[in-house]
Amino acid sequence: MTVTIVGSQLGDEGKGALVDLWGGDADVVVRYQGGDNAGHTVVEGGEEYALSLVPSGAVRGKVGVLGNGCVVNPRTLFDELETLRERGLDPDVRVAERAHVILPYHRRLDSVEEETKAESGDEVGTTGRGIGPTYEDKAGRRGVRVGDLLDPAVLRDRLEYVVPRKRAAIEEVYGLEAGEECDVGALHEEFAEFGRRLREEGMTVDCSAFLHERRAAGDAVMFEGAQGTLIDVDHGSYPYVTSSNPTAGGAAVGSGVGPTVTGRGEVVGVVKAYLSRVGEGPMPTELDGDRREEALAGDIREKGSEFGTVTGRPRRIGWLDVPMLRHAARTNGYTGVAVNHVDVLAGLDELRVGHAYELDGEELRTVPSTTERWAECEPVLRELEPWPAVDWAAVAESGYDALPDAAADYLEYLEAQIDTPVYAVGVGPDRERTVVRHDPWA
Ligand code: IMP
Q1: What ligand 1 atom has the least distance to the C-alpha of 132?
Q2: pLDDT at residue number 356
């Protein structure tokens, strides 16, 4: 049995709390895409752990796997592992030998390209972790894989081919000076040492074979998606996207588990009850029209702690965008959704949702394929009844029927629009504050 958890919007939907809650019944938690661009905070035993790469299950004594679809920065990996060990944990993390490695020149190129694009206002607003340049090298067949770190001679060959090309890009395309990030000798020394540690600690695996064996032994496997559907490189608002596939299909490709396996399991989309976006790109339901809207966005931002986990940037805020969720439900084939942050919307004077878009005088029920067209969409807003602030701890304890009526109506409206049942409702930041209506493992 597998459960795949996917972000339905633009990332930051609160996937961590669900992975944390339902990961408790998994034996293995697998990340299948992305890298250290994904900030998540895990609360365990009253302790808070901020992670960006290590799968959150590793904090809870599960086997955490970074699948072949991930891009791995070994500096971050070992830093996070060390921090967890210093705090008395013994995380079991395996890394796919087919996963690609983020090298220092990827980070440099990420920031250099963003700075260049910013001159014409075209920056993506990346997390600066080198994610895009690493996936570029993967697709360009010049990447360094985790398996290459294990063999110093192979690693040297790879670096000798690729590094001069990176140096040329920095110096000749961008007219900047290349530094230590393009020193083959220094890179080789540092990354061969990472390879030695990975080998010594028995951390590398053939991900597909490893997961096959674990499943054959009866283990329950959870796939932990990072980022969200609308920043998927294929299904998101290109070019304002990350460079991987957070959508459910990515779980199969990014781990080497067949789609017939992940498809027989549950695919749960995580939805935030409103919308937030970090970085650039269209957002038709954004609350930025006038001072009143900006004040409302400010309130929601404060109440929902909407500041980037990795970068600290304040997130843009908007009403729930339903066309986006129709797109996500279809693209991912959800069996259920979990709706988070329902408590954050409590006590508002007015509550709206973006029910559809208007474009060229026509009503659209889903997201247009091009970002330029999407940016031209005007939201068709619907007014729904706001719900009062209540004792959310008591609601979490009593169950779904204890939700305020207006909140239950909001969820019912959503279920009807995306033709998907609500499995769980988040009414507070940690996993205890989740109202579970259906357990995907059951
Ligand atoms: P990158 O993944 O660093 O290349 O950033 C590309 C885009 O994805 C930017 O708009 C980022 O803000 C966004 N992004 C990347 N990771 C996350 C995340 O974990 N949550 C929300 N947005 C993200």
Answers
A1: 4
A2: 98
Predicted confidence at residue 39, as pLDDT, reads 82
Residue (of 51, 50, 60) closest to 26 by Cα position: 60
Ligand 1: residue whose CA is nearest its atom 11 = 126
Which of 36, 40, 137, 235 is the catalytic position? 40
How far is Cα 31 from Cα 19, in angstroms, rounded to an integer? 11
Q: Is it true that the peptide bond before 282 is cis, omega within 30 degrees of 0?
A: no
- For domain 2-96+204-266, the CATH superfamily is Adenylosuccinate Synthetase, subunit A, domain 1 (3.40.440.10)
The amino acid at 108: R
Check if 157 is active-site: no
pTM (predicted TM-score): 0.96
Residues of the chain with pLDDT under 50: none
Q: Which of 40, 70, 231 to mutate to test the pocket of ligand 1 (most atoms within 8 A of CB)?
A: 231
Helix (H), strand (E) at residue 146: helix 146-149
Q: What's the 34 CA to ligand 1 centre distance in angstroms?
A: 9
Q: Ligand 1 centre and the CA of 387: distance in Å?
A: 32
Ligand 1: distance of its center to the CA of 328 in Å? Answer: 17
3-state secondary structure of 80: helix
Q: In what order do the strands lie in the sheet with 266-272?
A: 204-205, 92-96, 63-66, 28-31, 221-224, 2-7, 266-272, 336-340, 422-426, 434-436
Class in CATH terms, 101-198 = mainly alpha
Residue 101: predicted pLDDT: 99
Q: Are 126 and 233 in contact (CB under 8 A)?
A: no
Specify whether 100 is catalytic. Answer: no
- For the stretch 272-328, pLDDT in tens is 999 999 888 899 999 998 999 999 999 999 999 999 877 788 999 999 999 999 999
Question: Going by CATH, does the domain composed of 272-332+340-436 fall within 3.40.1110.10?
Answer: no
Tell me, in angstroms, the distance from the centre of ligand 1 to residue 436's CA: 29
Q: What is the DSSP string of 233-278?
A: TTTSSTTSS-SS--STHHHHHTTT--HHHHHHSEEEEEEESSEEE-
Which residue, by CA, sits nearest to atom 8 of ligand 1? 242
Cβ atoms 420, 325 nearer than 8 A: no
- Ligand 1 proximal residues by C-beta, below 6 Å: 11-12, 37-39, 124-127, 129, 131-132, 226-227, 231, 240, 242-243, 278-279
